[in-house]
Amino acid sequence: MRHLLTLAACCAALTSYSQTPSNIEAVEYDPQGNRWFVSNGSSVLVTSDQGANWSFFGEAEASHGMEVMNGVLYAIGNNVIRSYALGSAELLGTLAIPAVGFLNGMGNNGAGMLVVSDFANNRLHTVDAADPTAMTSAQLTGNLGVIPNGVVVDAANNRAIVVCWGNDADIIAVDLESGEVSTLVDGTGIGNLDGIDDDGNGQYYVSSWSPNKVTRYNADFTEAEPMLSSAAGLSSPADISYAVGLDILGVANSGSDEVTFHNFGSSAVSGSPLIPTWNAVRMGDTWSVTLPVPDAVHWTVFDGIGRVLETGMERLPAGTVQLNWPGLPPGGFLEVRCGTQRAVLR
Fold it and tell me: pTM higher than 0.90, yes or no?
């Protein structure tokens, strides 16, 4: 399912031509620039319109986890951590941690520290990135006995929260001073956990492959609520990023090479609530809209250079409604709007 929900805003790119994400693994929101980065094999792509257009972020490299902290993008690229200036994409520094197997997930404490998972050696490392031109590392744990993947830092409690790979996978916490490990969830009932991020309100979102799912946990991980599934466009969802100021979760779907954006906001527009889990998706000769409550849906057909060819509006019931796919010229797309959210289908 390669034509998925994305949100469209105004376009701003670092290069004059659009790219298509491929071999993606991680997505990261930049609140300073109101844009999203995605690892793209060995490069980094950036979008300012939430997926309608992607452009190269200079010559930056990323194969796995990325973090934005204090005006810098930190990116893992084939076991090397690189730092880039957000404003210019200039390479500031590099760090190769000795004797690692496979650097995968990464989190930050907002104050100059990164925490990185070594997926192959079952370890965590910390990185002192206060000076992005002269990063240093230290091993935080020995073999954890589980396979660590996604990482988020709970700065208030000075700990890293780590989701694990494997069947009936665990969620653990690691003290950032002592390296002491505690188990937050001993067997989640889901497998191959990949990404984790918090929403700034004490809730955590976790992506998994078995099944394709995003689950929301409360602050102490005693309650779990399924939020998204393959019906929302998930396909081997890898690293995720929650844009706190927007209440939007970005998901890097490694199975489809699509980044999907999911709005969990609660504001209202023209008396109509913002739909938190609506979905628009193309399926061959049809496209469908799924709504949790009845709402008005507007759509616009554009050609390849952005000219409007056709518009329409219909009030749809709760549930899934299928519609005929319009004939599009090369490069054309369908924009769908519900409340203040937009989706672009191709």
Answer: no
